[in-house]
Amino acid sequence: MRETAVSGTTTLPAPSGPYLDKGLLPADFFAYEELLSDGEREQLESVREFLRTQVAPIVDDYWARAEFPFQLVEGFGRLGLMDWADPDSPESRPSNLLAGFLALELAHVDASVATFAGVHTGLAMGTILTCGSDEQKRRWLPAMSRFEKIGAFGLTEPHGGSDVAGGLQTTARRDGDTWILDGAKRWIGNATFADLVVIWARDVETRHVLGFVVEKDTPGFTATKIENKMALRIVQNADIVLDGCRVPEANRLQNAHSFKDTAKILRQTRSGVAWQAVGVMFAAYEIALQYTKEREQFGRPIGGFQLVQDLLVKMLGNATASCGMMTRLAQLQDAGVFRDEQSALAKAYCTVRMRENVGWARELLAGNGILLDYKVGRFVADAEAIYSYEGTREIQTLIVGRAVTGGLSAFVR
């Protein structure tokens, strides 16, 4: 750790500046990364190296072809990101700040790869960790933590999105020691190749929302890839059909009893999406910054023009403010005191700022901004998906609005 400056009783990293410190991202202007411990920064750097050498060189090609680079999965397993999730592992759970910076780093290279990892580790594994019994955790999590079995999360439906809490149509009917699932899911990432898919369905008798783990090749379960996407093209989103799909009682998540349990998962993963938005902002700024230093017009680099610098500073401000918000949210999470509305505000704010940044980056690259060769176009397109998934800006706004007005709900009933 670098030398520190002391202010009152709080010890903070010395603000030596990311443009002087080797290893910090250029967009980390306030050096937030230095709040991580030395061990955490070492783990972040190992992920950064993997992304730099194994992921970055191939993502444009796979994005253009809308295919998934399966050869990367084994590498993710070797990184040990989720070793702590193995119930028999002696490792302690990493801080939420480290988890946030890992999500940022993934999205900083490619939002599709970040989404793949987020669905597997946050949504699928997170559900089993939160809602599974001890036996279920031991049955599934060790292989998932090593990325030997991949997970997916089935909540969104073809005719429902923001109203999923009350409008869930997929049903579950008890039949002896099995449950029969009927319905459909849409936009389910990883589902075309996942070994385990968490499916949320409504019990026809109690009307409660329950969680089930549907394993690969279960009769009555089909997943069909959604084609012609303009965003997150590497992510293999699927339409799922459940037609008399029989799932054993042993695969019903024993601690999932209502949509409130589903919401616990979403509260955690929503902050992960906000971290992804920060990663995209960082990438857009850094690509634009480098381009404006090299691109010449009227006999000099365009980075020397006032209007260009204005956009660069606006982009840096967005990234810095968003990273600061997410750093504080991670601290609240680590303290166990963060609330739904804080996660909602982070997702809403950061994704709006992300949209601004990618737009300004494309503007600074002019015509080159729409070429995949210059990467900004990929981030522009992928930002549209991040802006919408895990709850739209409008829904997050109403969650925060209800909180700040003392419970006055503006949701449609």
Automatic annotation (TrEMBL):
<protein>
    <submittedName>
        <fullName>Glutaryl-CoA dehydrogenase</fullName>
    </submittedName>
</protein>
<dbReference type="Pfam" id="PF02771">
    <property type="entry name" value="Acyl-CoA_dh_N"/>
</dbReference>
<keyword id="KW-0560">Oxidoreductase</keyword>
<dbReference type="InterPro" id="IPR009075">
    <property type="entry name" value="AcylCo_DH/oxidase_C"/>
</dbReference>
<dbReference type="GO" id="GO:0006635">
    <property type="term" value="P:fatty acid beta-oxidation"/>
</dbReference>
<feature type="domain" description="Acyl-CoA dehydrogenase/oxidase N-terminal">
    <location>
        <begin position="39"/>
        <end position="146"/>
    </location>
</feature>
<dbReference type="InterPro" id="IPR006089">
    <property type="entry name" value="Acyl-CoA_DH_CS"/>
</dbReference>
<dbReference type="InterPro" id="IPR037069">
    <property type="entry name" value="AcylCoA_DH/ox_N_sf"/>
</dbReference>
<dbReference type="Pfam" id="PF02770">
    <property type="entry name" value="Acyl-CoA_dh_M"/>
</dbReference>
<dbReference type="InterPro" id="IPR013786">
    <property type="entry name" value="AcylCoA_DH/ox_N"/>
</dbReference>
<dbReference type="InterPro" id="IPR036250">
    <property type="entry name" value="AcylCo_DH-like_C"/>
</dbReference>
<dbReference type="GO" id="GO:0050660">
    <property type="term" value="F:flavin adenine dinucleotide binding"/>
</dbReference>
<keyword id="KW-0285">Flavoprotein</keyword>
<feature type="domain" description="Acyl-CoA oxidase/dehydrogenase middle">
    <location>
        <begin position="152"/>
        <end position="245"/>
    </location>
</feature>
<comment type="similarity">
    <text>Belongs to the acyl-CoA dehydrogenase family.</text>
</comment>
<dbReference type="InterPro" id="IPR046373">
    <property type="entry name" value="Acyl-CoA_Oxase/DH_mid-dom_sf"/>
</dbReference>
<dbReference type="InterPro" id="IPR006091">
    <property type="entry name" value="Acyl-CoA_Oxase/DH_mid-dom"/>
</dbReference>
<dbReference type="InterPro" id="IPR009100">
    <property type="entry name" value="AcylCoA_DH/oxidase_NM_dom_sf"/>
</dbReference>
<keyword id="KW-0274">FAD</keyword>
<feature type="domain" description="Acyl-CoA dehydrogenase/oxidase C-terminal">
    <location>
        <begin position="263"/>
        <end position="404"/>
    </location>
</feature>
<dbReference type="InterPro" id="IPR045008">
    <property type="entry name" value="ACX4-like"/>
</dbReference>
<dbReference type="Pfam" id="PF00441">
    <property type="entry name" value="Acyl-CoA_dh_1"/>
</dbReference>
<dbReference type="GO" id="GO:0003995">
    <property type="term" value="F:acyl-CoA dehydrogenase activity"/>
</dbReference>
